[in-house]
Amino acid sequence: MIPVMRAPEPASLDLKVRQPGMCAIAGMVGRSSRHPRTNGKRFKKIADRGSDIPTEQFPNYWTRVLDHLMTAYHQVCAYSCFRIHPVSGSRSADHFAPKSRSWRSIYEWSNYRLCCGRINVRRNDFGDVLDPFVYDGKRVRYLPGDSPARRNCRPSRSRCRRYAARRCASSLRKSG
């Protein structure tokens, strides 16, 4: 696994994502928000608690920081090490802690990983995926052909890309 350094939170995240998101959640559970909504319709109450809100009902305010994610992570997918090109793949903000399991972190920068759309769809709600921001030298995914003597060195970026491409292609073939 190639370690990825966490980028600093953009200054505009609170105003563009966090405040509107938490306002929406407050409205969907029937509470007033610290940051009242200034335009548009009010959200209807659909649940008694935030954990009861269906994941598809959360407004996708996280898409407002996709440009920041692309710049901060140099257009490289956190999971596949591939560069995300507008022609070859869609960019996506992956929620590392799935929305269905951790609704409080839906609008938090620390929960976002830049990801290509295909991998984000395949990742779904799996909770056992390695976090690209956490690297302790022990949880390394070794590539085929690595000998035990080479296990302390990081694989080259090109080998990681080839391996990820094969894994992604084989998983798509299996899923039909």
Order of strands side by side in the largest beta sheet?
1-2
End-to-end separation in angstroms reads: 27 Å
Give the count of helical stretches: 4
What's the shape? Answer: globular
In N-to-C order, the SSE pattern is: HHEEHH
Structural class: mainly alpha
Q: How much strand content do the residues show? A: 5-15%
Q: How many domains would you count in the coordinates?
A: 1
How many extended strands?
A: 2
Rounded mean pLDDT is 77
Major sheet attributes? 2 strands, antiparallel
Rg over CA atoms, rounded to whole Å, is 19 Å
Helix content bin: 25-40%
Enumerate the spans where pLDDT stays under 50 for 5 or more consecutive residues. 139-156
Could you characterize what this model shows?
The protein has 176 residues and is mostly helical. The protein has 4 helices and 2 strands; from the N terminus they run H-H-E-E-H-H. It has helices at 13-28, 66-72, 117-123, 157-175, and strands at 91-95, 112-116. It has a two-stranded antiparallel sheet with strand order 1-2. It is globular and about 40 Å long. The model is unreliable at 139-156 (pLDDT under 50).
